[in-house]
Amino acid sequence: MNQILILTKNILAEQEIQQKLQALNYEVYCSARMLETSRQQVEMLEFFNFFQYVILSETICESEVMELVPLLRKQPIRIIRKVEAKVTEMDHQYLEEELLHAIISNEDSVDELRECLSNLKQQKNELAYENRNYVQLSDKVSLIRPNVLHKGLTNPEDNYQFLEVLHHLSTTETRILSILLHAGNKVVTRETICHQIWNEDVNKSHLASLSSTVTRIKTKFEATNLTNKAIQTLWGKGYRINPELLDRINKNDTLHTLVSNG
């Protein structure tokens, strides 16, 4: 059973989310005292080793969150921010800078919470891949090496790295990259991307999921030799694909086909 710690200033405010998490068979601890203890005594942070997830309640102000996060990141724990309803631009920025791992609210259904926690567990399992500087080619990639990889590019080995990254993108990650590829040098709003992916009214959960997914895409492309991040974030406007990545994909039929088919 996985353990979840909720840090809050008001335990009663956490009853609804606690019940939903317990329905998913999570062992949930809720504490106001540990919030103050962890801020005042760094040695008490070892306590967090007993948990896989920590939820920072909406009762905790932004300045306190920014004080806690650097301390919590020293532990092998997933950091989740709970908000009442609206996700702010600052929340999205925290997600993309990997200061947070997810954002939830009391409005989230049991289904949404289940998928959120499942995705966080999967992300943690993928860290071994994301932290490698060079990725060994899979059998699937090696089958398409012969001719097309050399076309229009000076260093075929670079193409292998890009191919490996593309093959390790999830379906949603590939679709986001495809949307940005077709937009070219134009900025695409978060709302537009969410609508194209989920084909329904955009909500807080979609926007938060988009931010964390974009972060995963950026991280995976760090295994390549791109000068800058694979996706550019323009705060208050949206996302745009890295011009260098755009040019590379457009000049190689194999790369373009892999992304476009997403």
Automatic annotation (TrEMBL):
UniProt domain OmpR/PhoB-type: residue ranges: 132-243
Coiled coil (residue ranges): 106-140
Cited InterPro entries: OmpR/PhoB-type_DNA-bd, Sig_transdc_resp-reg_C-effctor, WH-like_DNA-bd_sf
Cross-referenced Gene3D superfamilies: Winged helix-like DNA-binding domain superfamily/Winged helix DNA-binding domain
Keyword annotations of the record: Coiled coil, DNA-binding, Transcription, Transcription regulation
Keyword Nucleus: no
Matches recorded under CDD domains: trans_reg_C
Pfam families: Trans_reg_C
Residues within the DNA-binding region(s): 132-243
UniProt protein name: Helix-turn-helix domain-containing protein
